[in-house]
Amino acid sequence: MQTIAVYCKASFQEGLGHVVRQVNLAKVLIKKGRQVIFCMEDYPPAVARVKENGFPVFILDSERPFPNNVQPADLAILDRGDNTHKAIEVLRPHARLIVDFDDLGPGRNSVNLLIDANLGPGDSKNSPPNVKTLFGLSHSVLHPEYSKIERVARVYTKTIQSVLISMGGTDPNKLSLLLTQTILKLAPKILITVVTGPGFEDFD
Q: What's the rounded Cα separation, in Å, for the pair 63 and 94?
């Protein structure tokens, strides 16, 4: 069975977006008969999210960037951004192939496959010939539930009656609170629903 090691970052400041994306991808890989492990820093909300979806987690730190108790993987997936050339070189003995997501660091030129939905297909000309690319919105990784949403026309009233606010898994800039307070000043009787993530700290 092929082993895939997912290296992704998560913190209060960086949020949980990388973890959410890779958990969705890992579920698909499991269905295709792969074994998936996660290697990440010890940020409790992120670790809990991965474990509750059934994936093992190996905790990393600055002195141990790769788990020493795991066999080299057939494939490493990087979702932590801004990788250096040295980081990729250090990873090479631990993975036969390396796939990299949304990386703007120089390490993006040393991987086997670079995936970036924020770039257009034509941007691949800026990558070295040895790096395969999957650029464009068609390569976004989304939860399968999105494919079930009915894309039908909706009729809206002229007056806004309710507002939904969602600022991700941590909201480090406290935008949920700021938006709620601002909207209530403009429309005190409006219905507001705030969706918060596991790293949110401003419930009171």
A: 16
Strand partners, 8: 79
Q: What is the DSSP letter of 72?
A: P
Task: Give burial (CB, 10 Å; 0-12/13-18/19+) of 200.
Answer: buried
Q: What angle do CA 35, 24, 127 make, to 5 degrees?
A: 85
Helix pair angle (17-31, 44-52), 10° resolution: 20
From first CA to last CA, the distance across the chain in angstroms is 47
Q: Are 45 and 76 in contact (CB under 8 A)?
A: no
- 160: Cβ contacts below 8 Å, ≥ 6 apart: 187, 190
Q: What is the pTM of this model?
A: 0.79
Cα 112 from chain centroid (whole Å): 19
Determine contact, residues 30/56, Cβ cutoff 8 Å: no
Give how far Cα 170 sits from Cα of 166, 177, 179, Å: 10, 12, 15
How far is residue 52's CA from residue 24's CA, in Å, rounded to a whole number? 13
| Gyration radius of the chain's alpha carbons | 20
pLDDT band at 160 (very low <50, low <70, confident <90, very high): confident
3-class secondary structure, 60: strand
Contact 66, 94 (CB under 8 A): yes
Can you tell me the mean pLDDT for 50-69? 80
Inter-CA distances, 38 with 89, 122, 188, Å: 20, 32, 45
